[in-house]
């Protein structure tokens, strides 16, 4: 019987093995499309389109994600959607501990094979959107007092990229960074700036919580099966201090949401529904802040949204 652990990984046991495994990967491409297809076939597992199962076949990209996440042995890595584990073992070679959260039951036996020999990986068969991430962090830290930081890593299923990112940011998970692969178009929106077509509520929301570094652009050819789109890996560095001072975060986000609710309309028309003012009064309110009420939301930067939100709060205080 073929051993998937040998097919895919260097063992944890010795550093010689690790080095040999990596050289082998680069020379012989252990993550080739054929090998991954063979492993899936041996387990009678298909690639689920609904769960976004496009697995990485390019070692350069796998290594770039692990390197880009800047993982070291004091880190607890939480991997979202490990698939058959190619990125999981790359992270485990660098981290103190890895918690790999995979929703698909049929992949668990494959994952267990891939990570055999590693004593610093736990596999959690759960939906990340229904997972208490703080609990995973607490458990890992109680079992390993050397863990100092949490870093989240993943090649995300495209259909839930935004909900996952927003869950992680809004729930204030105790992570230092989130290094994730996503559809290129989504990445373009996250890193966008005022005046660009791609700039919107999600750009502001993510940039409020994080600074962003682009790690690598990834063509569709790096996956099996090949997706229809190209991808980008970003590292979101969670800010210790927010970039703007807010009187009320909820008001800030509702101003942003309303502002972008109809991109073609002016700020004046977009904000009418949420501010409890007549047109004339709202126009004057904006002009007093030095903001032309005929501007569109996509031209406003974060400071200007914060200014509007804070002035609205002051008005009702
Ligand atoms: N990390 C692997 C790789 O790079 O080859 C697999 C990446 S694949 C794009 C996405 C993975 O996320 C799949 O294994 C899929 O089953 C898993 N997944 C999808 N939805 C999930 C969810 N809600 N929670 C946890 N895992 C999920």
User: Major sheet: order of its strands?
Assistant: 4-3-2-5-6-9-7
Q: What is the H level of CATH, i.e. the homologous superfamily of the largest domain? A: Vaccinia Virus protein VP39
Unreliable stretches, pLDDT < 50, 5 or more residues? 1-7, 9-28
Alpha carbon gyration radius: 23 Å
Give the total of beta strands.
9
Q: Describe the sheet with the most strands.
A: 7 strands, mixed
Strand residue content = 15-25%
Helical content band: 40-55%
Protein structure class: alpha/beta
> What hetero molecules are bound to the protein chains?
S-adenosylmethionine
Question: What is the helix/strand order?
Answer: HHHEHEHEHEHEHEHHEEEHHHH
User: Which architecture of the largest domain per CATH?
Assistant: 3-Layer(aba) Sandwich
Please tell me about this protein's structure.
This protein is α/β, with parallel strands linked by helices. It folds into two domains: 2-238, Rossmann fold, CATH 3.40.50.150; 249-316, Helicase, Ruva Protein, domain 3 (Orthogonal Bundle). Helices cover 43% and strands 16% of the residues. The chain contains 14 helices and nine strands. It has helices at residues 4-8, 15-28, 33-42, 59-68, 86-92, 108-114, 133-143, 161-170, 184-190, 201-209, 249-259, 267-275, 279-288, 302-316; strands at 55-56, 75-80, 97-102, 121-125, 149-155, 177-183, 210-218, 223-224, 231-238. Strand 3, helix 6 (108-114) and strand 4 form a beta-alpha-beta unit. The longest helix is centred in the last third of the chain and has 15 residues, at 302-316. The termini are far apart. Residues 1-7 and 9-28 have low confidence and may be disordered. Residues 51-56, 80-83, 86-87, 101-104, 107, 127-129, 155, 157, 160 line the site of S-adenosylmethionine (SAM).
């Amino acid at each position: 019987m073929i051993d998937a652990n040998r097919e895919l990984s260097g063992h944890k046991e010795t550093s010689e093995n690790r080095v040999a495994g990596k050289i082998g990967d680069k020379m012989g491409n252990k993550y080739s499309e054929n090998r991954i297809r063979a492993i899936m076939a041996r387990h009678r597992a298909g690639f689920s389109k609904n769960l976004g199962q496009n697995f990485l076949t390019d070692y350069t990209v796998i290594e770039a994600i692990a390197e880009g996440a800047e993982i070291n042995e004091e880190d607890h890595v939480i991997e979202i959607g490990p698939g058959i584990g190619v990125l999981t073992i790359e992270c485990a070679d660098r981290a103190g501990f890895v918690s790999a959260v995979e929703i698909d039951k049929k992949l668990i036996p494959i994952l267990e094979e891939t990570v055999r020999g590693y004593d610093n990986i736990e596999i959690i068969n759960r939906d990340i959107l229904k997972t208490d991430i703080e609990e995973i962090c607490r458990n890992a830290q109680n079992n390993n007092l050397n863990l100092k930081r949490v870093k989240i890593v993943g090649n995300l299923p495209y259909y839930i990229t935004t909900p996952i990112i927003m869950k992680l940011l809004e729930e204030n998970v105790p992570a230092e960074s989130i290094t994730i692969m996503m559809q290129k178009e989504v990445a373009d929106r996250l890193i966008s700036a005022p005046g660009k077509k791609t700039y919107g509520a999600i750009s502001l929301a993510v940039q409020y919580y994080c600074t962003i570094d682009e790690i690598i652009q990834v063509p569709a050819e790096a996956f099996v099966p090949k997706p229809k789109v190209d991808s980008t890996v970003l590292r979101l560095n969670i800010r210790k201090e927010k970039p703007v001072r807010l009187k009320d975060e909820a008001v800030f986000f509702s101003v942003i949401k309303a502002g972008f609710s109809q991109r073609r309309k002016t700020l004046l028309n977009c904000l009418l529904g949420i501010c409890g003012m007549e047109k004339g009064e709202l126009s004057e309110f904006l002009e007093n802040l030095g903001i032309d009420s005929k501007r569109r939301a996509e031209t406003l930067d974060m400071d200007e949204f914060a200014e509007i939100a804070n002035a609205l709060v002051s008005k009702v205080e």
